[in-house]
């Protein structure tokens, strides 16, 4: 007699692990600030009024995409005013210029349009006022940055650059009771505060700016990136390498807890290998980066599974600036 045993139940199939949740935390505000929008619109309006070419001293803002777009529209970017044909239209960039640049433009009968950010112009005004009152001025900033060069030019005999905490001990002043500090507008708020505190310890009577010099957009973007950093596996900051505020956003993200942060000019700079093991990407952009670059990065990430976007908005922003009077009324005028 033959007996048969029932066939064993098939081995259970292991449950398929759920796909990791992939999402993007989009910091808001991000991208172009009012000063950048004003500067770019100034060049576009000047081209409408005067036709091609219009000359721009230095990069109008520190973003390669913006510069290339304006070049395609007819803007010619030069390093110095002596490269501009005599009598032509020249626009000063959002970072501001020293008085000597204005004098040189006047000597060559250039038709100038000033696109200096109003917040940078405020720092220039403060520098002149402190110098006129006999103060030594300590400018917190990065050597060689165009904004710093322009600000130093407002009071060259009264102002010295303080690059950070390491420079504080080397500072020498005429009268410790007549010292003031100012700062580059695009610095890290935390870094600037730390340096200012060290200056205050060394010079207890030092005078601070009547209102903070770090621009509202820089502060807002740093606050927004702090809000996403701790929940992100990787933070991408869209901005060009010569953009000070964009570089500061990378530093701020890392200081706020992001395991990794990268600066990219656009989606083509993103290495797919960076996404290994990353479920949450934090995304922001510097104050000189246009919105189209963020949109392109979001599309690139969506193609790789990051289709959920969560906007994180710890602060609202609604600042606007009027265009320079030269393009509002219809033409640049010779500098006098």
Would you mind describing this structure in some detail?
- The N and C termini lie far apart (119 Å).
- The protein is flat.
- Mean pLDDT is 93; it is low at 1-7 and 332-336.
- Helix 7 packs parallel to helix 8.
- The chain has 336 residues and is α/β, with parallel strands linked by helices.
- It has helices at residues 34-50, 64-73, 99-107, 118-132, 146-152, 189-202, 216-229, 244-255, 291-302, 325-328; strands at 23-27, 54-57, 75-78, 89-92, 111-114, 136-140, 159-162, 179-183, 234-238, 261-264, 280-285, 308-312, 333-334.
Topology, element by element:
Elements: E1 23-27, H1 34-50, E2 54-57, H2 64-73, E3 75-78, E4 89-92, H3 99-107, E5 111-114, H4 118-132, E6 136-140, H5 146-152, E7 159-162, E8 179-183, H6 189-202, H7 216-229, E9 234-238, H8 244-255, E10 261-264, E11 280-285, H9 291-302, E12 308-312, H10 325-328, E13 333-334
Parallel strand pairs: 1-11, 1-12, 2-3, 2-4, 4-5, 6-7, 6-8, 9-10, 9-11
Antiparallel strand pairs: 5-13
Helix pairs in contact: 4-5, 7-8
Q: What radius of gyration results from the CA coordinates? A: 26 Å
- From the N-terminal CA to the C-terminal CA, the straight-line distance is 119 Å
Q: What's the story with the biggest beta sheet?
A: 5 strands, parallel
- Beta content: 15-25%
Order of the strands making up the biggest sheet: 10-9-11-1-12
Detail the poorly predicted runs. Answer: 1-7, 332-336
Structure annotation, total helices: 10
Say how many strands there are. 13
* Topology order in helix (H) and strand (E) letters: EHEHEEHEHEHEEHHEHEEHEHE
Q: Output mean pLDDT.
A: 93
Shape: flat
Helical content stands at 25-40%
| Category from helices, strands and their pairing | alpha/beta
Write down the oligomeric state: single chain
């Amino acid at each position: 007699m033959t007996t048969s045993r029932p066939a064993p139940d098939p081995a259970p199939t292991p449950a398929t692990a759920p796909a990791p949740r992939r999402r993007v935390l989009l910091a808001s505000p991000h991208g172009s600030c009012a000063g950048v929008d004003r500067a770019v619109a100034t060049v576009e309006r000047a081209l409408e009024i005067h036709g091609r070419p219009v000359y721009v001293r230095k990069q109008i803002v520190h973003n390669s995409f913006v510069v290339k777009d304006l070049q395609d529209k007819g803007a010619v970017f030069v390093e110095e005013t002596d490269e501009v044909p005599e009598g032509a239209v020249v626009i000063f960039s959002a970072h501001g210029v020293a008085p000597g640049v204005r004098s040189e433009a006047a000597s060559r009968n250039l038709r100038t349009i000033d696109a200096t950010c109003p917040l940078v112009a405020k720092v220039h005004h403060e520098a002149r006022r402190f110098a006129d009152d006999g103060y030594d001025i300590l400018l917190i900033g990065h050597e060689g940055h165009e904004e710093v060069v322009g600000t130093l030019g407002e009071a060259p005999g009264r102002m010295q650059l303080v690059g950070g905490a390491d420079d504080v001990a080397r500072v020498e002043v005429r009268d410790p009771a007549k010292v003031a500090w100012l700062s580059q507008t695009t610095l890290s708020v935390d870094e600037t505060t730390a340096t200012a505190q060290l200056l205050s310890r060394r010079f207890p009577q030092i005078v601070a700016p009547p209102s903070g010099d770090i621009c509202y957009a820089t502060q807002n973007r740093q606050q927004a990136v702090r809000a996403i950093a701790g929940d992100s596996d990787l933070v991408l900051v869209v901005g060009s390498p010569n953009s000070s505020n964009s570089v500061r956003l990378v530093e701020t993200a890392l200081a706020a807890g992001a395991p990794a942060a990268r600066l990219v000019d656009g989606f083509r700079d993103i290495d797919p290998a960076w996404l290994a093991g990353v479920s949450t990407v934090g995304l922001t952009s510097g104050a000189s980066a246009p919105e189209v670059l963020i949109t392109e990065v979001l599309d690139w990430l969506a193609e790789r599974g990051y289709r959920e976007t969560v906007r994180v908005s710890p602060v609202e922003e609604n600042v606007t600036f009027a265009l320079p009077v030269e393009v509002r009324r219809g033409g640049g005028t010779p500098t006098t």
